[in-house]
Amino acid sequence: MNDAPLRLFDILPMVDHSSHAALMLIVALTLLFTLSIALWYRYFTPLAKLQRALLNHSITPRQGCHQLAGMMTINSAMVQEINRLRFQAAEPTLVEVQRFIKRARNVL
Question: What residues contact residue 93 under an 8 Å CB cut-off, 6+ apart?
């Protein structure tokens, strides 16, 4: 019987598997962290909560505009536009407010 492959196995170095486990742990934690940040940004930011409330009709578009005005203190052009929306005689439409929220995400 030929036992040469067995002798060859004896001279090969043993692989340390602990480094592979540590690498997999780091990759898994990185993915978990990235996923949690993405979910937080999507569902738990003030703009996301406001947009969800508008879609659920738990607040009116005018109330949404008033809440947005409290958030828009940085950009004067955005403040002027939100003031125009919230103080006009007719109720702002849901589409106008949603369009403004999408633009506000880039500013905030």
Answer: 61
Q: Does this model's pTM top 0.70?
A: no
Dist. CA 19–CA 11, nearest whole Å:
21
How far is residue 86's CA from residue 67's CA, in Å, rounded to a whole number? 10
Here the tokens at position 93 are 């439409």
pLDDT tens per residue across span 10-56: 666 666 666 788 889 999 999 999 999 999 988 888 889 999 999 99
DSSP helix, strand, coil percent of the chain (3-state; round to 5): 75, 0, 25
Q: List all residues 6 or more positions away from 10 whose beta carbon is below 8 Å from its beta carbon.
A: none
Burial class (CB in 10 A: 0-12, 13-18, 19+), 71: middle
Q: Tokens at residue 77, please?
A: 């052009």
